[in-house]
Amino acid sequence: MDDLGITARRADAAEEESMGTLRLDQASKESLEGFNQRMLEATKLMREKLGRAADRVREDPVFIEHRAQGDKA
């Protein structure tokens, strides 16, 4: 770090106690249920995206030809 001109700073006792926790104000707090619901929706959307991507790969003429040649690469 010294070669970058950065000086390491030691955390004080208050910082050490709160390490690993989020500091949120009242406006940005989210309930666990709300977070869980958002993650569930994101997971569902990702499954759909991965399914569409797999479909595109199966239908891609380049990949079809590559598989037909026996994957000689």
Record the SSE blueprint.
Layout: H1 13-18, H2 32-59, H3 61-68
Task: Please describe what this structure looks like.
It is a single chain. This protein has a domain at 31-73. It contains 3 helices and no strands. It has helices at residues 13-18, 32-59, 61-68.
Uncertain ranges: none
Rounded Rg: 25 Å
**Nearest-integer average pLDDT:** 80
- First and last CA, distance: 44 Å
| Secondary-structure element string | HHH
Which of globular, elongated, flat, extended, rod-shaped describes the shape? elongated
Strand content: under 5%
User: Main sheet, how many strands, which sense, barrel?
Assistant: none
**Number of E strands:** 0
Count up the helices.
Answer: 3
Q: State the share of residues found in helices, binned by percent.
A: 55-70%
Give the structural class: mainly alpha
Tags for this model:
mainly alpha; 3 helices; 73 residues; elongated; single chain
Q: Brief overview, please?
A:
The chain is an all-alpha fold and 73 residues long.
